[in-house]
Amino acid sequence: MDTREEKVQFWMLNVASFLGQLAISMVNLALVYHLRYTLGSSAGVVGLAASTYTSVYLVCCLTFGGFYQRFRPYVVVCVSVLGMGVSMILVALSSSVPLVFALLVMYGFFMSMLWPQVEAWITRGSEGEKLNRLTSAFNFSWSFGTGVSPYVTGFLVTFSPAFALGAGALVFAFIAVIVALGTLLCAGIRATGPERDYIHDLERQENAQDHSTPLRYDSWIAIFVVYSALSVVLNIFPMYAGEVAGMSETTSGFLLLLRGLATCAAFMTLGRMRFWQFKAWMIYLSQGLFIVLALVFHRASSPLATGVFFVLFGVVFALCYSFSIFHSAAGAMNRGRRMVIHECVLTVGQVIGASFGGGIYQSMGYSNVLLFLAATASLLLAAQLVVHAVRRRG
Length: 394
Hints:
The chain starts with a helix and ends with a helix. 83% of the residues lie in helices and 0% in strands. It has helices at 3-38, 43-68, 73-93, 97-111, 115-123, 128-156, 161-185, 187-190, 195-204, 215-235, 237-243, 249-271, 280-296, 303-329, 335-364, 366-393.
């Protein structure tokens, strides 16, 4: 591709990432209200629903990740977003909880085609400063979508949760239009081959070697921790805010917006810096900060205290996500496989957070959900420090 086509691809993928995460986050929050208040489901069922499509996403990433690499990235992305959009329209029209769960299986299947492909596509052939710039732009794009969506969705659900689900489906369709137009207008993008062919070309080159960093393992643990918490924030907090803390949908949406904006600002800052790269102590420090935040704010119930917690958590989340996507890609030959692992680990975190969080919230309250997250993170960090100390002595 020439420079103009590279720029078109850069903006096409980042706009698609922004809109994709905007739509996904809209669906996540609208689904909570749809199940809880339209269909009258319990908090445990709401948590199970969130873990259903994320579990299917995980299984499909592991099962079909190599299969998706056989096709051109733009084809897989368009099929993915159109399938997700159709799934959500059907959910909005359904009044049966079992049917909603069946449609969430379909939704998770189509979602498994999206992020590993986009992440491998964005980082293809890049290292060092260019890799940092591309991943930082991608991180900002999707996180800005996450940040904006709660406030938008909080407004839309005041009309109807089904209306918000339909709006998310329209955004998915618009993404397909953007990717299709970018592909038609630029021959270089249209000629971008399947990830599997690109990997085979690399392997045929002389002196081709994988230079992956072992810090990816610590980074994956860190992202597991923060995604467990993010799942609680996005799926359990809206119920707690309305049912216990007495906050309106607009207030809780604004607080979630603060978290998203803090994450965006942190991503922008990290994209201009390199001090955090290839440093184990930074990963451990970030995990330790999360533990402290969960313990300090586990009883927070006022909008002010919750807002402070969300802002600080947003910064820690950005650090841990940056660790994972950068250290997963750095030096790796098969980035598609690495991005599948990256997505699978964060998805497991989402499943744990939504399923365990929903059950704990229903039986013991929201503060105990945060204590559970802090305890889990502490055990993992202790194990990491022991392994790190043994490795250094060896």
